Amino acid sequence: MSIKIDKKEFFYIFVLGMVLFTAFFPNYFLQISVLNYLRAILNIIFSAGVTLYAIIFKRYNSSLIFIIGYILTEIISTFINGGSISSAIYGQGILLLGLCIAVQIAYERNERLFLKTVYGLFYILVLINYLSIIIFPKGLYYDRHELDGICFLLGNYNGFIIYILFALIPGYIYEMKFKQKLTWKYIVFCLLVIATYLQVHSVTSTVGICLIMAYLVVSRFGWPKHILNLKIYVLINILFFFLIVWNGDRPAVIMAFLALVGKNLTFSGRTMIWQNTRNNLVNHRLLGLGYKSDQEMLQEVGGLSSHNIYLDIIYQTGLVGFGWIIGLFLYACSWIRKIDDKNLTDFLSVCVGVFMLMSQFEASSIRFVFFMLTFISIYSKKHSR
């Protein structure tokens, strides 16, 4: 019995898979110089090619306004602060723009294949990462610049959540839309995620993932609608950021929470990095300090990042750049509320809420933020009431 392979589908999956794989290269491979250089070259080629395609054939949507605004802000800030303009453009700008355009073009060309490819790629990465944890419990390598330096295929455990969400969200949509139910494959992935976090003993990450898993279970029996309101998640995150991260206060309720989850008052050493970041921003709050490499961040704040995505964005692009991110976030949320499937609206609300919570403790690459918000806004807009 011969297996027929659709050449167009194979080509679609291969190209999209390569674009995503190079954009979200597993951290372990970044330790290998040859692979790192190859990834950088492929990133620029893919991103420049996709951008030119979009310009020539006019394939772009409203969400690109926020992305272009953010990129221009970062370039201007980098120039004003005497940073590397070429790094801001090639190391960040083109990659962001190319990735978000690629998401739009690929999704519009074939929704089913897009969801299947993204789901499958990140499913495999999370699976191999779990195997790396089992086989190498002390880590594949050690990064002394991380707060907890033990790293696996996808890097430090604080960064796992992004790869997991990129499988959970497209996977849920794909299975409910094209399978009409969550299959054993998706259930196995959920169990894999739980096992991963139990293995690395990450309290914050485990709490976040348990919220998503709890929704998947109890949504079958009904869920209080007010708990799934995005406004509540946004309010909680705003309060946490300004009371704890920005001002450094320690209200009694926060101290009680920290005692409950076994954290100390420094949030595992993050408060010193937050303070260094705030101090450097005193005279640069409007436009920030421009694009920064990992080494520059290490010298200036004491870590490869500020360990808070919101603080990291303000540090490099100021309140203006942060405003562009908020604009894209609100744009995506406005369409989430209009999705014709209430269960999917609730699921995306929970996932976005968990991502916002996790981002308070880790500064994931801005590419992850733009990829997720661009995808959610494009999907939600297409399936709105």
Automatic annotation (TrEMBL):
<feature type="transmembrane region" description="Helical">
    <location>
        <begin position="186"/>
        <end position="218"/>
    </location>
</feature>
<feature type="domain" description="O-antigen ligase-related">
    <location>
        <begin position="190"/>
        <end position="322"/>
    </location>
</feature>
<keyword id="KW-0812">Transmembrane</keyword>
<dbReference type="InterPro" id="IPR007016">
    <property type="entry name" value="O-antigen_ligase-rel_domated"/>
</dbReference>
<dbReference type="GO" id="GO:0016020">
    <property type="term" value="C:membrane"/>
</dbReference>
<feature type="transmembrane region" description="Helical">
    <location>
        <begin position="230"/>
        <end position="246"/>
    </location>
</feature>
<dbReference type="Pfam" id="PF04932">
    <property type="entry name" value="Wzy_C"/>
</dbReference>
<feature type="transmembrane region" description="Helical">
    <location>
        <begin position="313"/>
        <end position="331"/>
    </location>
</feature>
<feature type="transmembrane region" description="Helical">
    <location>
        <begin position="253"/>
        <end position="273"/>
    </location>
</feature>
<feature type="transmembrane region" description="Helical">
    <location>
        <begin position="89"/>
        <end position="107"/>
    </location>
</feature>
<keyword id="KW-1133">Transmembrane helix</keyword>
<feature type="transmembrane region" description="Helical">
    <location>
        <begin position="157"/>
        <end position="174"/>
    </location>
</feature>
<feature type="transmembrane region" description="Helical">
    <location>
        <begin position="343"/>
        <end position="359"/>
    </location>
</feature>
<protein>
    <recommendedName>
        <fullName>O-antigen ligase-related domain-containing protein</fullName>
    </recommendedName>
</protein>
<feature type="transmembrane region" description="Helical">
    <location>
        <begin position="36"/>
        <end position="57"/>
    </location>
</feature>
<feature type="transmembrane region" description="Helical">
    <location>
        <begin position="12"/>
        <end position="30"/>
    </location>
</feature>
<feature type="transmembrane region" description="Helical">
    <location>
        <begin position="119"/>
        <end position="137"/>
    </location>
</feature>
<keyword id="KW-0472">Membrane</keyword>
<feature type="transmembrane region" description="Helical">
    <location>
        <begin position="64"/>
        <end position="83"/>
    </location>
</feature>
